[in-house]
Amino acid sequence: MGQYLMAPAASHLSPGLPSRFFAALVVLFLLGPIAIAGIVAFSSGDRMEFPIPGFSLRWFAIALSKPQYIEGLTASVMIGVGDAILATVAGTGAALALNHYRFRGQSVVRALVMLPIAMPAIVLGLGLLFTLAVYDMQPGLLAGVLGHAVLGVPYVVAMVTAALSNYDRSVERASLNLGVGPARTFFRITLPLIRGGVIAGAVSAFLISFDNISLSLFITRGDTLPLRLMQQLLAYADPSVAAISTLLVLGSLAGMMLLLPLLLRKR
Amino acid sequence: MQWRTRMAPWFWLTPAGALLIPFFVIPVLITARNSVYRDDPMGFLVPAFTFAGYARVLSDSYYLGVFGNTLVAAAIVSLVTLLVAYPFAWLLARSSGSSRGFLLWVVYLPIYVSVIMRVFGWMVLIADSGMVNQALLKLGLIHHPVRMINEISGMIIGMIHRYLPLMILPLMTSLQKVDDSIMRASSNLGGGQWFTWWRVVMPISLPGAVAGTQLVFAGVLSDYVIPTLLGTTKFQLLAPAIYYEATTNAAWALSGAMATIVIVAVAAFLITANLILKRVAPWASI
Question: Complex ipTM above 0.95?
Answer without folding.
Answer: no
